[in-house]
Amino acid sequence: MNFLSVACPFCSLHCDDLHLHYDGGHWVLISPTCPLATRKYKDWDPITAGPSNPVQEAVKILNKAQQPLILLTGSMEQEVVLSAVNLARATSAYLVRDSSYAENISSAIQKAGLLSCTLADLPEPTDQVVILGDDPHGTLPRFWEFVGNNKKEKVVWVQTQNIFESIQGLRLQNKGLKTSFSKEIEGAASRIAKANSGVVFANAGSISENENALTEVLLWMKELGDLKKWYGQVLPSSSNELGISQGMRSATGYSDGMIFRKRKIYHDPRSFQIEKIIEYHELDALVIIGDADHLPRHILQKMEGLTTVILSPEKPSFQTDVWLPCPRAGIDAQGTMLRLDGIPIKLESLVRSGRTLIQNSLAQLIQGIIK
């Protein structure tokens, strides 16, 4: 059985030109070449192993918990959001996302007035590529295919370690002011100034924790957008960070950082961050909705010792108290994710695995809650 032009659920580009076929119980990527999609499709395994009744085990944990935390990751489809909110309301839980990086950078790009488009739609005569942060090839294998392999050698790299100083130097050089910055910065500023058009690719996790750097990046991009035809692109760390953020705002009025008390929602995005909640608040249960293995190591370390329930398509690599396997949108379930430019992508179910939809599993948990 062959499937043409399948939309990929595994990264934020959501390429829709993948050609797949089903071979001996596994998906095989035919073309185009993408190591991330190939690995994910080949590794897909519809196993449902776990406790004899994982839902009942999870219900016991939640009924015993005095203060749970629900973490909704950006790897899930938007249809999951409302069910996650309902569970948080039923358990009087904290509700947070694993990352608000993409939203912060995306907002900066919009405020700067840079043009937005997908990499596939990026105009061919783009003179210069600027990358803020690490090489995107690891999380976005087809990046250079879309941007142009011929531009890789001429790329301007702004490394994460000194991003604030580097961007500051680029801004000063652009204004013609004398600076004491390195010749590397001077050369980069010269190349950017000579380009008639270009694209700024921002690795969301690279600058999000530094508010000063984010502000400096915003001002620099605004100056670029005012002068020439420049595009802005964000690479979120998860495939649907933008969609989850939009879904939470639609369901609650907030995109992150909240706690439910009876019928009220209390919102504090600074205090209600996952690291701070785990460190400073007395939690006795953690529910992760979505893939957890991509969480930063320091967060995984803080999670140690917490009673944990995970609902995800992939079995977590670390020890958890309960794992409820659910289908993956784009493989054995339908779902919607947002592409980098905000366009919704409808992912179709290609096979049946027999796994319970995550919305149904969350509904079963809510039905068992006694509060």
Report on this model:
The protein has 371 residues and is of the alpha/beta class. It has two domains: 181 residues, Rossmann fold (3-Layer(aba) Sandwich); 135 residues, Dimethylsulfoxide Reductase, domain 2 (3-Layer(aba) Sandwich). Helices cover 35% and strands 21% of the residues. It is built from 13 helices and 16 strands. The strands form four sheets. It has a seven-stranded mixed β-sheet, with helices on both faces. It has a four-stranded parallel β-sheet with strand order 7-6-8-9. A three-stranded antiparallel β-sheet has the order 1-2-3. α2 crosses α13 and α3 runs parallel beside α13. It is globular. The mean pLDDT is 82.
Note the main sheet: 7 strands, mixed
Mean pLDDT: 82
* Strand line-up of the largest beta sheet: 11-10-5-4-12-13-14
Shape: globular
The CATH class of the largest domain, by name, is Alpha Beta
Uncertain spans:
none
Number of domains: 2
Cα distance spanning the termini: 49 Å
- Structural class comes to alpha/beta
User: What is the CATH topology assignment of the largest domain?
Assistant: Rossmann fold
Number of helices: 13
What is the radius of gyration computed over CA atoms, rounded to a whole number of angstroms?
22 Å
Strand/helix succession: EEEHHEHEHEHEHHEHHEHEEHEHEEEEH
CATH architecture title of the largest domain: 3-Layer(aba) Sandwich
Number of strand segments:
16
